[in-house]
């Protein structure tokens, strides 16, 4: 699912981030943990092909990301990954149903309406198709974002801080939602979090722990 060797990222004007070597092997679930500022979102962006690997090797879902051009990374992401960013990034001007059609529309594929119907039922957001994001609760927005990530049946679902600002009950609900949803399409799950409740909810996950000074791998 994820292999990292000598990977570093340097934002202009900031200290270089060195990621620890890591091999997820055949783990179905990896938790990327560490304090705020340790590089979790950066690694999610690198693994999503949104940021270009500058130094080192990065393999995600059997693909060497250092070998791809930006356009190839975009096509690869659409075909293989589902990404749920921390701020969800639903399009405010589109309805829920139009948001769920975007993974097809944005790359010129025909919209699979039956697939969208099914996902909306599975994620309990059927009936919300005509609403806009501002007419939804936070939990509903999160379900729409997860549904959108699953539309094209990804091999890997990458999720950034899914439980930030959620109470315990909602956090448990989101973790169930993610593990159920990934399991249903047979997708691996990579979750970035600084929330110990996520680790507790995923006792069999492998952990890649980043620290601001020196990143380390466990177990
Ligand atoms: P985390 O998700 O673990 O909180 P990030 O990956 O967001 O960490 O950030 C890692 C480090 O990189 C932080 O020091 C942050 O300030 C810096 N950083 C993140 N994005 C940018 C950017 N676009 N430009 C410059 N520095 C950035
Ligand atoms: Mg982050």
Strands ordered across the widest β-sheet: 7-8-9-4-10-11
Alpha-beta content class: alpha/beta
* Secondary-structure element order, N to C: EEEEHEEHEHHHEHEHEE
Gap from first CA to last CA: 17 Å
Q: How large is the count of helical segments?
A: 7
Ligand catalogue? adenosine-5'-diphosphate, magnesium ion
User: What kind of sheet is the major sheet?
Assistant: 6 strands, mixed
Give the beta-strand count.
11
Task: Tell me the Rg in angstroms.
Answer: 17 Å
Q: Which range best describes the helical content: under 10%, 10-25%, 25-40%, 40-55%, 55-70% or over 70%?
A: 25-40%
Beta-strand share of residues = 15-25%
User: Unreliable stretches, pLDDT < 50, 5 or more residues?
Assistant: 214-219
The residue-averaged pLDDT reads 93
What overall form do the CA principal axes indicate? globular
Task: Please give a structural write-up.
The chain starts with a strand and ends with a strand. Helix 3 packs parallel to helix 5 and helix 5 packs parallel to helix 6. The strands form two sheets. It has a six-stranded mixed sheet, with helices on both faces. Strands 1, 2, 3, 5 and 6 form a five-stranded antiparallel sheet that branches. The C terminus is likely disordered. It contains seven helices and eleven strands. With about 220 residues, the chain is an alpha/beta fold. The chain is about 35% helix and about 20% strand.
């Amino acid at each position: 699912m994820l292999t990292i060797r000598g990977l570093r990222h340097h934002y202009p004007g900031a200290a270089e981030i060195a990621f620890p070597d890591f091999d997820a092997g055949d783990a179905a679930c990896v938790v990327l943990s560490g304090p705020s500022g340790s590089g979790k979102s950066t690694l999610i962006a690198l693994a999503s092909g949104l940021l270009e690997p500058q130094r080192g090797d990065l393999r995600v879902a059997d693909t060497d990301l250092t070998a791809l051009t930006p356009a190839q990374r975009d096509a690869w992401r659409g075909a293989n990954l589902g990404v749920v960013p921390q701020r969800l990034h639903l399009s405010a001007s589109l309805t829920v149903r139009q948001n769920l059609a975007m993974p097809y529309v944005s790359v010129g594929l025909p919209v699979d309406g039956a697939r969208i119907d099914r996902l909306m039922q599975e994620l309990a957001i059927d009936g919300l198709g005509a609403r806009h994001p501002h007419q939804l609760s936070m939990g509903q927005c999160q379900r729409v974002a997860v549904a959108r990530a699953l539309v094209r049946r990804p091999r890997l679902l990458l999720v950034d801080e899914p439980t930030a600002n959620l109470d315990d009950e909602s956090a448990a609900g989101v973790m169930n939602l993610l593990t159920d949803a990934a399991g249903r399409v047979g997708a691996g799950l990579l979750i970035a979090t600084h929330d110990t409740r996520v680790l507790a909810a995923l006792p069999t996950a492998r952990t890649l722990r980043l620290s601001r000074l020196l990143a380390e791998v466990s177990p």
